[in-house]
Amino acid sequence: MPVIGTEIDREALTLTVTAEFVATPERVWQLWADPRQLERWWGPPGWPASFPRYEFEPGGEARYAMTGPEGESSAAWFRFTAIDEPRRIELVDGFSGDDGEPTDAMPSMRMVVEIEPSGGSDGAVTVMSIRTVFDSLEDLEQITSMGMVEGMTAAMNQIDALLA
Amino acid sequence: MVVDMLSPDEVDRLFRALADATRRDILTHALTGEHSVTALASRYEMSFAAVQKHVAVLERASLVVKTRRGREQLVTADPDALATARRLLEQYEALWRHRVAAIDALLAED
Question: Taking CB atoms and an 8 Å limit, are A130 and B96 in contact across chains?
Fold first, then answer.
């Protein structure tokens, strides 16, 4: 498994996931810089994401939608607060209102992505860590109740299938 | 800093418990406060015994706790808010595990 560590800080409502990939930092950076690549891994299982708007620059905004198995759609957004190629990305990820635009009525979370070379004989091993900070327990509850749990279940089934 | 990891068995119980729409619905209600099994059962077109079984699966996955008050069995999500946070963060962690696996597959195409 490429996930090499996870850390949950219940008090700070923070989750840090660290993963290692056989690829250069520049290649891993493209997973975020290119919305067509991001679309291939962002959505929970059964909820593919599409990003019609994607301004990958400090202060830039993105809009995306995840479409569920019953055709239901969940609209969301990014706001990039810092971009330091190819090492660090800071963004806010939130859910949109019915009009597809950000709203204070919906929860959001802050994310910090760090990409570091980690050696390997050919220098092509990269570690990516993603720290997600939730502002409140209410936000966290609301986010995890929005279709993600179904996605988790499907993910578990996929992992089971892989290990079978 | 509190560091937690679930054992594979615990993860398995958690996801199997969440794999059913009725159980997810029961859990959503339990997160808002105490509900009697009778009150929960009235929400679904199934027998009291069937709802009780669903509650038992959630209980084994440590998602809810059941307490007895008089003749009523009350179901609630773990009252400890930190435990709730941990559970929710673990669900979010599972999403990231999925994303990392998808990235790995994408990179393997290069």
Answer: yes
Among left, alpha and beta (phi > 0; psi -120 to 50; other), residue B87 is: alpha
Q: Residue A117: give its domain's CATH number.
A: 3.30.530.20
Whole-number pLDDT of residue B24: 79
pLDDT tens digits, residue range A99-158?
A: 889 988 888 899 999 999 997 667 689 999 999 998 888 887 777 766 554 554 454 444
- What's the complex ipTM? 0.80
CA of B64, closest CA in chain A: separation in Å? 15
Same domain, B90 and B53: no
Binary contact (B110, A15; C-beta < 8 A): no
**E strand or H helix at B16:** helix B8-18
Q: Min CA distance, A152 vs chain B (Å)?
A: 6
pTM, to two decimals: 0.67
Query: Domain for residue B65, yes or no?
Result: yes
Between A137 and A53, whose confidence is greater? A53
Q: Assess contact for B16 and B57: CB atoms under 8 A.
A: yes
Question: DSSP 3-state assignment of A103?
Answer: coil
Q: How many domains does chain A have?
A: 1
Task: Tell if the CB–CB gap between A155 and B94 is shorter than 8 Å.
Answer: yes
Say whether both B46 and B18 belong to one domain. yes
